[in-house]
Predict the structure.
Amino acid sequence: MRMFRIFVVLMAVLSAGPALAQQWTTYHNARYGATADIPPDFAPSGPEAANSDGLIFRSSDGLLTIYGANISGSFEAFVNNAIEHDKSYDGWPVQGQTITPDWAEYWGGGGGRSLKVRIEAVCNGHVAIVAKFEMRGRIPSSADRVFNSLHEENGRAC
């Protein structure tokens, strides 16, 4: 009977290990307050950027970047500059966009790669917080949760 109890406890511990490893985490950037849920298959690719703007998370299929930035000028101009940067500097074919006064999303892809970006204006329009997926293949379904969780929380820049 004692061996059976040990076996049951051991099996419970071993089966809980993978479940615990599959937990979502939350990233918070102290400078800009960019805060978002991070899927379990993404891990930090290194330390936070030297300028404290944000952090890059890597999975086997691509990157998720969460960061903040100051907005000089209008939010729409900031978003259009981000789109142009992704098109010209990173070579992304941007195929669609939605820009409102408070948030924007744009997306694109080709050649087996996909891009999807969400930007929110926070701190009375003075700061942008961004969640950006750059993937081989399709954007994961977890992107919706990341985008829905994106918010500003106690950023020093505000």
